[in-house]
Amino acid sequence: MNIIIAGDGEVGFHLAKSLTELDCNITVVDPHSELLKRLESETDLMTITGSSTSPQVLKDAGVEGCDLFLAVLHDESINLMSAILAKRLKARKTVARITNAELLAPKHREMLRELGVDEMVCPERIAAKEITNLLNNTVATEFFDFSGGLLTMYVIRLEAESPVVNHCVKELTEMYRELQVRVVAVMRGGETIIPHSDTVFQQGDLAYIIGRANQLETVNRVAGKEAVSIRRVMMAGGGRIGRYAAMTLGDRMKITLIEEDRDRAEDLSTQLDNTLIINGDATDIELLKEEGLQQADAFIGVTNSSETNVLTCLHAKKLGVRRTIALVENTGFISLSQDIGIDTIINKKLITASYISRFIVKGDAVSSKWLSGTNAEVLELMVGKWAPATRHTLGELPMPQGATIGGVIRGRETFLPSRDLQLKQGDKVVVFTLPKAMTAVARLFD
């Protein structure tokens, strides 16, 4: 697959690096020559310095006939224009990163498709939705639904009180046999482990668990924690993510939003009827205390500063707030932030990569998610009519090293993997995979 990535900074840089292990020919177009030199020093990707709104630059990048054109600059107008130009220059599929979620409305989406923008991704809107989901599930640090929630992947941190610590995977399966779940991966000390039946869980592990829609109680028991009812939320940052999240949560939770910029705070006060807007500095802990931080059930840091988000979440945790969520833009901070006690990390680069990767995998990817703190991805793949996987039971299936099946969806039925299960055309298979195995995995089900 031939892919062109148009970026103007870290998002394009991260996306390009994330895709280097896939079987793709990638060209990066970026106006910053210094960033491209850095990318060239770390990868063997082809790079071109220039603007993605220049037809000549796009032609030099090989846009004619390319399989996928990705415009992920910070300016959505440039992304839209770049995608339209790329389509007119015969790119097969175009994807543009946007910030205005209004463009996702059906009438606007259809208009832009007619102009040449095949798909759009709004990381801020997806991040706000993740925040909403995470406040409904207060034990998992991440979770992701497949096929409308028929299967769910939960990511939980195993603390000392977890009953599975010092037990192996086989013992966990026996302990919760009546409420079936499958552990597809363990993150330990920065290493992603695809577990075997004798893999022993340790305190501090991040366990990636797939279960049916009604397995939340089981996951809570595995974690050794009780779910927290979230009624009061304090949020730092009134940008797009904060605004989208407050709009969604305001009807059923008491929201206090801290915004430093006075003009933005005034705008938010007219847009958010059910949210208390405070114009102030989120790093002023005394201000947060005065506004009720110690009574909050959850604290969300989504300012433009990763450091501010991390520090305020840590202060909230120290003051007894049960649930903390931080927006961290530097991917190098993710593991550190998780290790020092922040419950959940959200990263817009990973969100963008998750959305886009479904167009890159050779196969019919229904959904996908890159996981925080690891380079792994979880995919929901549709089984094709002539797929090699239909000729084997799961026990015979030659799964590549670095990948494992978490579950199968057939219509409204769900199955956890068993050796004698035979896949059929139209089944959806949930697969946890490292980048090195992704292409081989997709071929099995295509």
Plain-language structure description:
This protein is of the alpha/beta class. The chain has helices at residues 10-18, 33-42, 55-60, 76-88, 106-115, 123-136, 169-175, 216-223, 240-249, 262-271, 285-290, 306-318, 334-339, 348-357, 435-445, and strands at 2-6, 25-30, 46-49, 68-71, 94-97, 119-121, 142-146, 151-157, 181-188, 191-193, 206-212, 232-236, 254-259, 275-279, 298-301, 323-327, 344-346, 364-370, 377-382, 403-410, 413-415, 428-433. The strands form 4 sheets. The chain has a 6-stranded parallel β-sheet, sandwiched between helices. Strands 14-13-12-15-16-17 form a 6-stranded parallel β-sheet, with helices on both faces. Strands 7-8-11-9-10 form a 5-stranded antiparallel β-sheet. Strand 15, helix 12 and strand 16 form a beta-alpha-beta unit. Helix 1 (10-18) packs across helix 14, helix 6 (123-136) crosses helix 9 and helix 6 crosses helix 14. It is globular, with a radius of gyration of 22 Å.
Short description:
The protein is an alpha/beta fold. Helix content is 32%, strand content 26%. The chain contains 15 helices and 22 strands.
Strand order of the largest sheet: 3-2-1-4-5-6
Number of helices: 15
What percentage of residues falls in helices of 4 or more residues?
25-40%
Give me the secondary-structure category: alpha/beta
Give the number of DSSP strands: 22
Query: What separation lies between the terminal Cα atoms?
Result: 15 Å
Mean pLDDT: 86
Strand count, sense and barrel status of the largest sheet are: 6 strands, parallel
Rg over alpha carbons: 22 Å
Uncertain regions: pLDDT < 50 for 5+ in a row?
none
How much of the sequence lies in strands comes to: 25-35%
The shape, in one word, is globular
